[in-house]
Design a protein that fits this description.
The structure is a single chain. The protein has helices spanning about 5-15, 90, 100-120, 125-135, 150; strands at about 20-25, 25-30, 35-40, 50-55, 75, 140-145. By secondary structure, the protein is of the alpha+beta class. It has one domain. The protein has a six-stranded antiparallel β-sheet. α1 crosses α3. The chain is globular. The model has no long low-confidence stretch (mean pLDDT about 95).
Amino acid sequence: MTWIEFMQPVVDAELSLAGFAGRRNSWRRKSREIISVVQLQKDPYGNYGYLNVGFWICSLGANPAPLERECHIRLRACDLFNNLRDRIDVFMDLERVSMSDAERINGIHRAMRVTVIPFLDSAQNLEGLTKNLSRVEGPSLMIRKEAGPVLGK
């Protein structure tokens, strides 16, 4: 079983419950102001990967189905976690053989429910998105130049 084949149904189960629609390794949820995008990305060098998050700001242009790499704001979900033990990327690393599949799946479900989905839920409008970006603690946060003024930056 490939990394994507293992991760996709686990992530899909949580995102579908949260109102995301997806295909293969990418999911979207639209609100009036924001399109939230979540994408699984396999690392090309190992049996691990990332959960990427993007936000398309609708007032900056029409794009009914943006890819994560096209979004105005991009980050890795692992940068939402304060506690290393609970970081989603720990559970997404299939090279960690000391962890059973059941532990890995339960860890991903817990990380999605406790951290990732609440972050996405509270970022469905510009006010919530701006507030929540201050919670991102890692190096992955990227904000396109044109989004700065809309976010008050």
